Amino acid sequence: MRKRSIIQMTLVGVAVGAALAVVAVAIPWLPDEASKQAGIVDSVYWVVTIICVVVFAVVAGVSAYAVYKFRAPPGDTDDGSPIHGHTGLEIVWTLIPAVLVTAIAVYSGVALAQAEDLPADHRVVEVTAEQFAWTFTYPDIEVEGGRPLTTGELVLPVDQAVLFLITSKDVIHSFWVPEWRMKQDAVKGITTRTVIEPTKLGEFDVICTELCGLGHALMRSQARVLSEAGFADWVEEQQRLAREAGSIQGKGLFTQQCGSCHTLADAGTQGQTGPDLDEALEGADEEFVRESIVDPNATVAEGFQPGVMPENYGEIFTGPQLDGLVEYLLEATGGGGGAR
Ligand code: CUA
Asked: Order of strands across the sheet with 123-130?
């Protein structure tokens, strides 16, 4: 009688477990898989989920069955018969979870090592989080003034592994693109890393997934995955925009700071105190233009006195301002060794 009940209970548990597992697998629970890592992470997710669903269903099924089958009949006020343990059962319910948990740990460890495997031809992107924005820096892509390309939107070529080096300027944030699965904290003072190889073209959300303050829910950016050619075009466009931004800013600075003393046709200034830059800088290279600004007495144009132009422009202008001004002057005077 007792053996038959145990077999019945087990059968009910297994049946319910199997039914629930089928439902769980049939519904598309997860976002698109858009990276090489997504498949690996999802395998771990599903293996663990299926184990959990089966275990839960067996336990819940057995409990429900026992509550129904062994309930006290009406009017029965007797105590249940005392039970003093069951060594066999205890060994089984210790061994099964121990084996399951160890297997999951080993499997997850292998999957993580696979996901973070970094091929030699990878790209590096530095991710900086702050309340409440993301900044992406491409150390291998140079823009105007020798600075690395920096954007607020993450743009990557498809099918190339990316090593993300992640940090924060303030509190803890977390970098996550759901379709890529890999998630990594951004912590001030240290650089965390993760490896992602996008495998699908398209636009995805970059999401902060660590509660970081009032703007946490709005701390989102965009990740765009382009073809290799599309990415090359994008890089070129960014470089062109950076150049133009530099020279537009440079023109404004020139008019403000230099125009009262210097004539420059492009800026429409007619100062006479210093040399006419259309002549003095004609065909000059970047080094000469820069020197003429920060160390004006190094070379003094014919017919002008040394010491007239202040020597502190190197301090007045910030680095990017100086870069922009030099860039603009090269452009306006046809220098720099090439047309732009
Ligand atoms: Cu940054 Cu949440």
From this structure: 147-151, 133-143, 123-130, 162-168, 192-196
